[in-house]
Amino acid sequence: MNINIVDLFSGAGGLTFGFQYKIKKDRFVRNHQNNILFANEYNAQAAKAFHNNFPNIPLIHDDIANVTIDSIAKLNINIENIDLVIGGPPCQSYSTVGKRQYDERAKMYREYIRLLGILKPKMFIFENVTGLLSMKNDNNEPVLNDIKNMFSDIYKDGLLNYIIKQKVLNAKNYGVPQSRDRVFLVGIRSDLNGNYWSFPTERYGTGHGKLPYLTVKDAISDLPHLKEGETIENYSLPPQNAYQALMRNGNSILQDHFIGKYGDKIRMVIKNVVQGEGKRYFNSLIDQGIVDKKYYLTSGYNNTYGRLWWDRPSTTITNSFGTPSALRCIHPLQNRSLSTREGARLQSFPDWFEFCGNKYEKNSQIGNAVPPLLAIELAKQVKRCFKKWENEQ
Question: If you average pLDDT over residues 311-319, what whole number do you get?
């Protein structure tokens, strides 16, 4: 059984990774049952990263608005039998951290739906931030209702539509060392049995029979200590656990483990903030006379300048995780922000996965991605669903 897949808004390829690979004997191996026909990504550096990591997958590097039947035809791909479309439009406009504007980026789901109308897959997986659940359109109506209504109107003859399954998944429940809630809409064509779909079972947690959550320590404790302005390209320790061994996957060169230099104020903040605390805690030290008032922090949210916990999953990795003044991203034990590779580890990208561009561009590719381990769990469920459909025939 082969499943033909298209990845839209692919980014560097977090979702593609989950369908391109599976885990066998604690290593990533190629999943040959999934055939990714093509992907689309507009951002130049993200497209380059995707191509470097998946050189055999045709990539349309263009604005999705320019992707048409004609441009797809140039790839010599048969679009008559598309099984699955995956992807998530840009999410910054929906994020509860920010201005939440119903701007052009917020409307990119329309392009996703337009291409669903061309490709007419048996199933699709649409991913976005949970802020989508409360976002309103220009008429002050829920954007989510717009999306669902448009999903139902793809087949203009009214004979077919998509049955929508919706759930918020937290990556930490699926073996990712990061607390990351995302909403997933799974559409199943109405001529197929929608009851065969079920979301992945939460295998990690605090309940009976579940594995303990993976922590920041579990994810990055084998990576070398970094000082300001330092880059290290060699491992100094062997893997300390199964997760770290999986992330290395036999890799010998340490990529993207570097840190910049800080100014006096940032250095003072990092030095004084303890695990689990941030801006409010630091300013309280100033109020107590422990730190000079010239360092008082006036900008940012209360969880900015935050230090992660060592023995808990990371908070959500965003595209600014390398900036100490951003949301919680200061290393639990070292006086610095996370390195690019540490962010990738917390997202469950293997160490050999390549990111492209400058530090911010690489971190954006990581922060915007679906964690590969979560994507693998989704791929397993897709396989089960298609197998049941196949057995019906």
Answer: 96
